[in-house]
């Protein structure tokens, strides 16, 4: 009867993947001496151990301080040495899977027969039939399989397959110590709930490292490894009940083997599972900083440094066990996120995006957007809004008057001086003087350019005044004077390319920002001036740490794109945007320079600015399509906007984020420009205009004082004209009705074309 019971147990265990048929038949036959020469050679002439491919391990992404912000994996695994696994965990796995592990040489005949009888009597799997070494071999063969078909073949239960595993197991025992075999097994085994290896399992099930696993926790994981899907606690209560039963079996076995005292086992069996299931946290959707994570992921998948083909790069990302130290600054990142969230809701169809970058290194400090990141289009977006299409972004938005900086830099490099300018007309037709870099004339005789809001005001504008007031006509004339192609070359030297990867549109309105851009590209270009003309390609990864601990530094890629004196001169002009131009009244409390940008028909709005320590660009547009849905008459966040301009929404986001991001950074001043080279310019009629404006300002101040002093007197309003202009003949001030740039709302309108 015992023989019949053993046969029944063999059939049962074979059906559920437990006991190996070959482990009973072959060793007994060998021991009885009834096998032929071929069978004997099977165990005397062993093959080399199975080839071990590197285990798929998770890739970790760290911020600049070394804190993990994301991870990628094909299998959630982090291999650790045996010394980092608690003694309780080691004892538990040996007790339930291979009690004679330290006694046999890879094949435990006695243990196999005992497991056969125990499992048959229990009517299920109570003890393992294969040694840990045999189980390790099977896992190695599955791991190195190139296809699902190969993996299924490695798992199939057959005499031939089991004989091969036995021979491999004996070979492994010859080259590895027992602790080395146990270490390999604990790192390769699957424990359920997406956790491969004991470290990932300890983190996933209990939120602790493997070194801190207790008796209860170790027994739980040891109980899960035999049937990880059947006892997966992340599925539901039924699976958790099975896991509890398996845990208690492990504890009983540990008591039988005197690995734990009866009192310890009793207390452990009375305790609940104590699960503290942790999120798997794979991919950018699970990252706290998803837009930056998506940029890093795209860098890995597109850079030849991570593999010759995209398939190689993806395999390395998912399986390589890399640690990537990145440039992300949590302070800057959270500052950008808070500034955006304070003004733009994730539910809005209008989206705000911001990129922050360090001048002189190109290190990306923050990438943020108002939309949640994810795959559900009704609640989130999978478009990396602060970045270009190459890094998961979209088509971008027209950059508007932020492009005037390239014309300004070109003019100063070609000898223009502060104070130099034109007497501009009220409207401008670019009918001649524009040639692209291919040598083709690209004039637009059918286009008419106006200043902001379609105003037809002309008059004298210098470099400074034309920039501060963002005069479109002045900048069209300046671009024609210095050469369209040279302006395009300046932009390209500063890394400017369209967000969609297409060629730049080299047209007369290039300086007015007709090309669609992404915030990171614009921020990197502006950072060049904060670094005194040193352009650095945006960089997100500073160090790659291989799974074996080898470190590879990723240096910045920089070049002197603009002369230092020219950059200093640009900084002086753009600093005035905060004191006398479109951002007047908005300040970050330290030296800064920047430019607003509002596009034709209010299709999008921008602000880009910088200090010597940090640069940032903010864009706002409708995610459904900027041309179809202009930023007019819109409710964004808690505010209503008749029209969104660069200074009304992107500007305040930039100010708040920069103040917060730089709160722990000492202020750095810009280098003063070389006035011998850049001073002394002349603009016809500008001096006279300025004097007239000063007289008007004095008149306004005088009338304000008179109102305060005489406003309560009866009949004051009847004499208002006298107080305003006591000379009945009329002064030059009262007779001056010529339009001028001060008659419009600078902050509201500048930057639009």
UniProtKB/TrEMBL annotation:
Domain annotation Glycosyl transferase family: ranges: 66-255
Xref: Gene3D superfamilies: Biosynthetic peptidoglycan transglycosylase-like (1.10.3810.10), DD-peptidase/beta-lactamase superfamily (3.40.710.10)
Source taxon at top rank: Bacteria
GO cellular component: outer membrane-bounded periplasmic space
Region (Disordered): 695-753
Keywords, in A-Z order: Carboxypeptidase, Cell shape, Cell wall biogenesis/degradation, Glycosyltransferase, Hydrolase, Multifunctional enzyme, Peptidoglycan synthesis, Protease, Transferase
Classification via Pfam families: Transgly, Transpeptidase
Catalysed conversion reaction: Preferential cleavage: (Ac)2-L-Lys-D-Ala-|-D-Ala. Also transpeptidation of peptidyl-alanyl moieties that are N-acyl substituents of D-alanine; [GlcNAc-(1->4)-Mur2Ac(oyl-L-Ala-gamma-D-Glu-L-Lys-D-Ala-D-Ala)](n)-di-trans,octa-cis-undecaprenyl diphosphate + beta-D-GlcNAc-(1->4)-Mur2Ac(oyl-L-Ala-gamma-D-Glu-L-Lys-D-Ala-D-Ala)-di-trans,octa-cis-undecaprenyl diphosphate = [GlcNAc-(1->4)-Mur2Ac(oyl-L-Ala-gamma-D-Glu-L-Lys-D-Ala-D-Ala)](n+1)-di-trans,octa-cis-undecaprenyl diphosphate + di-trans,octa-cis-undecaprenyl diphosphate + H(+)
SUPFAM superfamilies reported in the protein's UniProt record: beta-lactamase/transpeptidase-like, Lysozyme-like
GO BP, one annotated term: proteolysis
Gene Ontology molecular function, alphabetical: penicillin binding; peptidoglycan glycosyltransferase activity; serine-type D-Ala-D-Ala carboxypeptidase activity
Penicillin-binding protein transpeptidase domain location: 356-613
Coiled coil (UniProt feature): none
Biased composition (Basic and acidic residues): 726-747
Family: In the N-terminal section; belongs to the glycosyltransferase 51 family. In the C-terminal section; belongs to the transpeptidase family.
This protein's name: Penicillin-binding protein
The species this protein was found in: Acrocarpospora macrocephala
């Amino acid at each position: 009867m015992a023989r019949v019971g053993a046969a029944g147990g063999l059939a049962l265990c074979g059906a559920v993947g437990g006991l190996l048929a070959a482990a009973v038949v072959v060793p007994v036959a060998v021991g009885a001496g009834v096998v032929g020469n071929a069978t004997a050679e099977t165990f005397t002439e062993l093959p080399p151990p199975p080839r071990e491919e590197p285990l798929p391990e998770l890739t970790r992404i760290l911020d600049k301080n070394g804190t993990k912000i994301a991870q990628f994996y094909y299998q959630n695994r982090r291999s650790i040495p045996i010394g980092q696994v608690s003694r309780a965990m080691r004892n538990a796995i040996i007790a339930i899977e291979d009690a004679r592990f330290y006694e046999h040489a890879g094949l435990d005949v006695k243990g196999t027969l005992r497991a056969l009888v125990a499992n048959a009597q229990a009517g299920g799997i109570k003890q393992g039939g294969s040694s840990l070494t045999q189980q390790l071999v099977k896992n190695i063969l599955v791991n190195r399989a190139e296809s699902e078909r190969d993996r299924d073949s490695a798992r199939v239960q057959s005499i031939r397959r089991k004989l091969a595993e036995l021979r491999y197991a004996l070979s492994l025992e010859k080259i590895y110590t027992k602790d080395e075999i146990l270490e390999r097994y604990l790192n390769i085994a699957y424990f359920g709930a997406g956790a491969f290896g004991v470290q990932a399992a300890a983190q996933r099930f209990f939120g602790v490292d493997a070194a801190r696993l207790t008796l209860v926790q170790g027994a739980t994981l040891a109980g899960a490894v035999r049937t990880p899907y059947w006892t997966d606690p992340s599925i539901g209560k039924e699976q958790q009940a099975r896991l509890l039963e398996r845990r208690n079996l492990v504890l009983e076995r540990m008591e039988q083997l005197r690995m734990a005292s009866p009192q310890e086992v009793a207390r452990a069996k009375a305790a609940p599972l104590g699960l503290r299931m942790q999120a798997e946290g794979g991919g950018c959707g699970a990252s706290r900083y998803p837009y930056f994570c998506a940029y890093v992921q795209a860098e890995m998948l597109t850079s030849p440094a991570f593999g010759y083909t995209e398939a190689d790069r993806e395999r390395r990302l998912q399986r390589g066990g890399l640690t990537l130290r990145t440039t992300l600054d949590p302070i800057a990142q959270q500052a950008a996120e808070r500034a955006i969230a304070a003004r733009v809701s994730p539910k809005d169809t209008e989206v705000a995006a911001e990129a922050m970058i360090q001048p002189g290194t190109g290190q990306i400090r923050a990438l943020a957007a108002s939309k949640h990141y994810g795959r559900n289009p009704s609640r989130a977006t999978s478009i990396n809004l602060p970045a270009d299409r190459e890094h998961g972004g979209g088509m971008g938005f027209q950059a508007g008057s932020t492009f005037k900086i390239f014309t300004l830099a070109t003019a100063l490099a070609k000898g223009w001086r502060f104070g130099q300018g034109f007497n501009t007309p009220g409207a401008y037709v670019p009918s001649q003087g524009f040639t692209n870099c291919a040598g083709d004339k690209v004039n637009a005789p059918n286009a008419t350019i106006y200043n902001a809001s379609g105003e037809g005001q002309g008059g004298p504008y210098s470099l400074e005044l034309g920039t501060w007031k963002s005069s479109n006509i002045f900048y069209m004339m300046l671009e024609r004077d210095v050469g369209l192609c040279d302006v395009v070359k300046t932009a390209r030297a500063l890394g400017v390319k369209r967000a969609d990867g297409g060629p730049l549109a080299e047209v007369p309105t290039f300086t007015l920002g007709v090309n669609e851009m992404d915030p990171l590209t614009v921020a990197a270009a502006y950072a060049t001036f904060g670094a005194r003309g040193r352009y650095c390609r945006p960089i997100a990864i500073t160090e790659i740490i291989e799974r074996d601990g080898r470190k590879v530094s990723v240096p910045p890629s920089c070049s002197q794109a603009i002369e230092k004196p020219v950059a200093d001169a640009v900084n002086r002009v753009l600093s005035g945007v905060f004191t006398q131009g479109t951002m007047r009244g908005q300040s970050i409390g330290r030296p800064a320079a920047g430019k607003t940008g509002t596009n034709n028909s209010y299709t999008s709005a921008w602000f880009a600015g910088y200090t010597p320590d940090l640069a940032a660009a903010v864009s706002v547009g409708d995610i459904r399509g900027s041309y179809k849905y202009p930023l007019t008459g819109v409710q964004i966040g808690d505010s209503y906007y008749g029209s969104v301009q660069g200074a009304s929404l992107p500007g305040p986001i930039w100010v708040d984020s920069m103040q917060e991001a730089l709160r722990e950074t000492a202020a750095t001043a810009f280098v003063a420009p070389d006035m011998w080279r850049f001073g002394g310019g002349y603009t016809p009629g500008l001096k006279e205009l300025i004097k007239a404006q000063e007289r008007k300002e004095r008149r306004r101040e005088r009338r304000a004082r008179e109102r305060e002093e005489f406003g309560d007197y009866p009949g004051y309003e009847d004499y208002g004209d006298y107080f305003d202009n006591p000379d009945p003949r009329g002064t030059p001030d009262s007779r001056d009705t010529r339009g001028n740039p001060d008659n419009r709302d600078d902050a509201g309108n500048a930057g639009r074309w």
